[in-house]
Amino acid sequence: MDGFDDPRLTAFGLLTEVYSGVSEHLHATYAEEGLSEVDFGTLIRLARSPGQSLRMGDLAAQTSLSTSGITRVVDRLEREGLVERHACASDRRASYAVLSEAGKERLERLLPQHVKDIETYFTGLLTPDRLEEFLNTLRIIRGVVRPCATAGADEVAQLG
């Protein structure tokens, strides 16, 4: 076997192809609601967080954006009325991004089609056992490559 037939290369190549292919199908649904993939990722992170809010730094860590990058995204979403900022009572330097009622309504309109797309192009292609194994595998990998992916979730849960 030469180095080009390495199963590690195959695994990574398949992962990127699957991600790109599924993302292409999802983009149309986001666009129908006037959102980008980054906008949706930010809103769904907030929606799925305790209190539907996260510290800005934790939101940046969870979305893989820089602090200034997430600030720009939240600024835009705030101008659209989809997100609000709340000051942190214990740290004047920090603020929370909070999903607004309008943001929640926008997500609720988008979610049925989004979930249908995920089912059609991703999870519905796996048996329940395979899906559970796949989710566990992804969590193992995420824990190594993105240890901050759940940053702030426990802290917010304790505050709420």
Automatic annotation (TrEMBL):
Annotated PROSITE patterns: HTH_MARR_2 (PS50995)
InterPro entries attached to this UniProt entry: HTH_MarR-typ (IPR000835), MarR/SlyA-like (IPR039422), WH-like_DNA-bd_sf (IPR036388), WH_DNA-bd_sf (IPR036390)
Gene3D superfamilies: Winged helix-like DNA-binding domain superfamily/Winged helix DNA-binding domain
MF-aspect GO terms: DNA-binding transcription factor activity
Species annotation: Microbispora oryzae
Residue intervals of the HTH marR-type domain: 8-143
Signal peptide: none
GO BP, one annotated term: response to stress
Protein name per its UniProtKB record: MarR family transcriptional regulator
Pfam families the record matches: MarR_2
Superkingdom of origin: Bacteria
